[in-house]
Write a structure and sequence with these properties.
The chain is built from two helices and five strands; from the N terminus they run H-E-E-E-E-E-H. The protein is α+β, with helices and mostly antiparallel strands and 222 residues long.
Length: 222
């Protein structure tokens, strides 16, 4: 086990040393644009790797192609240096830019996802509250509906009671009138009886003295 560990440490150290001394060949290249189809012709300019050129014609025998730059300069370059796609360095730079853009978009999307998740939680809580409120409102509506039904029944019952009350009031008024009539009649009867009693008393008061006087006269004659 110790030998294996030592071997792994030595291998790791050797790999690290090799990585520190490793270098890569750059793909940066400069191509000469000449006035003719040989290296003997005048150099018009140096074209760096990745320069876009318009292909005018190609001479397979000389191995040169006539091209035009974006600013209108025309010349000849070696055909084998021309490719139909951009250089690996440019493609890598573009890919790195796209990767950076995708990472930024991914970061933005993750942030938006987090916000949407938070909003979803808030909406879920709101939905739960609304559901509870709706259930409460349904119960309240049922209670009000029940109260309304009871109110209609009570209103009908109250109407019946009001009619009975009116009938009782009419009966009461009739009885009161009858009582007033009876009271008047009783007063009148008592007045007549009282008058009769008074009159009878007066008559008796007139008769009794005469009866006593006669008795005395009768006794004196004896």
């Amino acid at each position: 086990m110790k030998k294996i560990a030592i071997f792994l440490l030595i291998s790791a150290a050797a790999s690290a040393a090799y990585a520190e001394n490793t270098r890569y060949i750059t793909d940066k290249l400069e191509v000469t644009m000449r006035s003719g189809e040989s290296n003997q012709h005048k150099i018009l300019r140096m074209l760096s790797s990745g320069t876009a050129l318009e292909l005018i014609q190609t001479n397979t025998e000389s191995g040169y192609s006539q091209v035009r730059t974006a600013d209108g300069t025309q010349g000849w370059v070696i055909t084998r240096y021309l490719e139909q796609q951009r250089s690996a360095r440019d493609r890598l730079a573009t890919a790195e830019k796209q990767l950076a853009r995708l990472k930024a978009e991914n970061k933005t999307l993750n942030r938006q996802l987090a916000e949407l998740s938070k909003q979803n939680q808030t909406l879920s809580a709101t939905a739960s509250q609304l559901s509870a409120a709706n259930e409460k409102q349904s119960k309240e509506f049922a209670r009000v509906k029940n109260i309304s039904a009871n109110a209609l029944a009570l209103d009908s019952e109250n109407a019946t009671l009001r009619e009975q009350t009116r009938q009782l009031e009419r009966t009461h008024q009739a009885l009161q009138l009858e009582n007033d009539s009876l009271r008047d009649r009783s007063d009148r009867d008592w007045f007549i009886v009282g008058s009769g009693v008074i009159l009878l008393g007066m008559i008796i008061g007139l008769i009794i003295p005469k009866i006593r006087w006669r008795k005395k006269s009768d006794w004196s004659s004896l």
